[in-house]
Amino acid sequence: EEATAALVMLxxxxxxxxINLNAPVDIKLGTPTGIDVERVKAIENKVPTTLxxxxxxxxxxxxxxxxxxxxxxxxxxxxxxxxxxxxxxxxPTGKLPLTIPANQEAVNNNASDVPGYAESFxxxxxxxxxxxxxxGFGLSYDKKNLK
Length: 147
Fold this sequence. Notes:
Order of helices and strands: EHEEHH
Radius of gyration: 16 Å
Shape: globular
Helix content: 10-25%
Largest sheet: 3 strands, parallel
Number of strands: 3
Strand content: 5-15%
Oligomer: single chain
Strand order of the largest sheet: 1-2-3
Structural class: alpha/beta
């Protein structure tokens, strides 16, 4: 209740339908992938939130990313290493090794042998400020410029 900021770490798990084995793996953040999207959105609406998402899959993030103050993609990093970067002890740098899909429709329309960034339609998630979450997207900062 008294927090002025939040750090929310999401560690989703892929969901495979055990009844319909031909169904695609579910990569939309939600109950099947172990993420309480409504809870995340409630936190984001209350305080500035740094959203950390473990990207062991190209998750569909269109419901949780828009209200986040910042988004950090991780790849099974330890909490200690993450905090070292977020506190400015080390300069973060990184590029996405995958493309984040815009939504479930993009996933459904994606050819199985074509990477998302090479699709002939607008496959990639883009946020409201124009960040394009395609293969190779990434930001870094120089800690000399931190205040």
